[in-house]
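Supplementary Text 2. Reproducibility record for the structural model of the 213-residue chain.

All settings were left at their defaults, and a single model was retained for analysis rather than an ensemble. We include the record here because the model underlies the residue-level annotations in Supplementary Table 4.
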Amino acid sequence: MNKVTEYWENRYATGGNSGAGSYGMEAAIKANIINAWINQYDMRSVNEIGCGDGNNLLLYDIKTSYTGFDLSKTAVAICNEKTRKIKNSLKYYFTNEEDGMDYDADLCLLLDVWYHLTDEEVFNKLCHTLFVKGNWKYIIAYNMDSDNQFTEDGTPFAPHLQNREFLSKVQEYPEWEVMYWMSGLNTKDGKVMQFPSTKKFFLLKRKELDVKE
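Retained model, structure tokens:
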């Protein structure tokens, strides 16, 4: 077991959750943006890398199927329990096996995962899965776009965090292009509400895809 998997398995097994980004106002904002894009571009099936404890997925407006992948077996068990009694036509499937992912889903979600992969081998494998192996039409990512390893007051990040640039990495995969990125939302009073910790939302699509914006 690599150190990334070990950290998250221990976190969920001892009663921890997916973190602040999966709960409260931040989770609601994320869901609103994701659901707007899902509906605008008719993304019917979703594969999420790093589904965590499944709190976010309960807010998604998904049409046909949702597949959640997580390194932690305990997280997968939690997600199965959360969705077991949900009565709708949506198909849920959770796995900690890479071969169990839905590589043909319309959309791949990657939320608050990019900067949690402190192991280089795990990170490189993620990039291959995300940008090469998956056949999805779109990718929605939510993370920071920086390699700075310190908070605003100069404190080093926790050991389970490692900032990495995102847009420069996307440029290494010419089959993908960025449709939108956003660092906050316009409020009704005309102000801009920034996302926490300078995070950004990114919507990527395959260049071969003919999309009317």
